[in-house]
């Protein structure tokens, strides 16, 4: 086993994907919004009570649809975390928005909810929350701020399928169903995959009919096929956001196996956490924090090291042992594209996660033996570092 590299991710196949794709091909309807797309929509509506879902070709597309739907105009301001994927910001930049980046929390890479309100100006139009690692932001706090200032809330729930938020009054809602709009990803690095794929969840009833039009290249084609209008035409701006049936056939095979996929991922996550969290804290390495109001969908197991140097050491230590751990986002406010557009505020927590966060392999097919080997290797790293320290002190 130790001869073979353990990759960071390996896409899991249920075995039904190619069969369903073949079905779609044989059926002769392979463009978008056919039977498999409808089956996927029905799945989400049933399992999560999402009122309106639209599969897209990516979460990036769902975010771009969101920016169109909330009618972002040049000069509008949008608030979001700096520690996120480029698409979260790009979608709004494409409509001419100015982005105000928020720092992350100390206990979690998600945005610090207490820093949002001070960034609101008369030009602010929306708050985009990112449920990092599938762990919910404090949604009650965010909804209160948004209500008070009349702002849209868009959830970048790319990593958050099958994760829930519990409101202070005890009601529990799936992530993606809480803001006006929710965006999911089925990229091959996520829990449920379709190669490239995504979904927009339209929770705000007022945005529903326009969402369908934007989805279908700016036409009312969906209403036409439902027999609601006798011809269809150009109604609005839009683009080709819907995936082909080949994508939704693949996705449907995954969705049918969501419980199996999730229980395996959760088991792996728990084993990492149980075996490592206390041990690594001896080197001041932080393990994931899950607030009481959030569930954990086991999207990611990460560690936050004490320093950039320590992360580099741990990454190369693991690489030597043929274990591919990886870091994550580079804070967007410091990116080549955005640095000169940023308002100059320091975002120390976001920088901290850029410099120190490291993700461990977590995928369905990771075997117990492989995981034990990863755990042992990290424990050995900790032991070696501690004895180094002891040696230096006593020398
Ligand atoms: C993966 C991801 C995206 C992009 O998803 P795609 O489906 O690849 O477009 C956006 N935001 C976050 C937070 C992500 O993790």
TrEMBL record:
Signal peptide location: none
DNA repair keyword on record: no
Single GO biological process annotation from the record: polysaccharide biosynthetic process
Domain of life: Bacteria
Alphabetical list of SUPFAM superfamilies matching this protein: PLP-dependent transferases
Keywords: Pyridoxal phosphate
GO MF annotation list: dTDP-4-amino-4,6-dideoxygalactose transaminase activity; pyridoxal phosphate binding
Active site feature: 190 (proton acceptor)
Modification type N6-(pyridoxal phosphate)lysine: residues: 190
Homology family: Belongs to the DegT/DnrJ/EryC1 family.
Protein name in UniProt: dTDP-4-amino-4,6-dideoxygalactose transaminase
Organism annotation: Gracilimonas mengyeensis
Organism phylogeny: Bacteria, Pseudomonadati, Balneolota, Balneolia, Balneolales
């Amino acid at each position: 086993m130790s001869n073979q590299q353990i990759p960071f991710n390996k896409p899991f196949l249920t075995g039904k994907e190619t069969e369903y794709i073949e079905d779609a091909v044989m059926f002769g309807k392979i463009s978008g919004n056919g039977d498999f797309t409808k089956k996927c929509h029905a799945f989400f509506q049933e399992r999560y009570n999402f009122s309106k879902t639209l599969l897209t070709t990516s979460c990036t597309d769902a975010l771009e649809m969101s920016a169109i739907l909330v009618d972002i105009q040049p000069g509008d301001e949008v608030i979001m975390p700096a520690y996120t994927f480029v698409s979260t910001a790009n979608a709004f930049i494409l409509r001419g928005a100015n982005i105000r980046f928020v720092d992350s929390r100390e206990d979690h890479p998600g945005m610090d909810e207490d820093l949002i309100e001070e960034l609101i100006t008369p030009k602010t139009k929306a708050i985009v929350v990112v449920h990092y690692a599938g762990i919910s932001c404090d949604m009650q706090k965010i909804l209160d701020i948004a209500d008070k200032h009349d702002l849209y809330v868009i959830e970048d729930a790319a990593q958050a399928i099958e994760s829930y938020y519990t409101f202070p009054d005890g009601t529990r809602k799936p992530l993606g169903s809480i803001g006006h709009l929710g965006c999911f990803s089925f990229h091959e690095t996520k829990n449920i995959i379709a190669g490239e794929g995504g979904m927009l969840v339209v929770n705000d009833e007022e945005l529903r009919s326009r969402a369908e039009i934007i989805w279908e290249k700016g036409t009312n084609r969906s209403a036409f096929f439902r027999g609601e209008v006798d011809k269809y035409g150009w109604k609005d701006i839009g683009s080709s956001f819907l995936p082909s049936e080949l994508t939704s056939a693949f996705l449907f095979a995954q969705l049918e196996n969501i419980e199996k996929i999730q229980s395996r991922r959760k088991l792996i996550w728990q084993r990492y956490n149980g075996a490592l969290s206390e041990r690594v804290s001896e080197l001041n390495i932080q393990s994931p924090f899950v607030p009481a109001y959030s569930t954990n969908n086991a999207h990611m197991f990460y560690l936050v090291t004490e320093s950039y140097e320590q992360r580099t050491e741990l990454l190369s230590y693991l690489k030597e042992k043929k274990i591919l751990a990886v870091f994550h986002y580079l804070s967007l406010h410091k990116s080549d594209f955005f640095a000169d557009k940023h308002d100059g505020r320091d975002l120390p927590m976001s920088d901290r996660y850029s410099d120190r966060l490291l993700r461990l392999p977590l995928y369905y097919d990771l075997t117990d033996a492989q995981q034990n080997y990863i755990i042992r290797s990290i424990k050995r790293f900790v032991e070696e570092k501690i004895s180094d320290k002891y040696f230096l002190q006593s020398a």
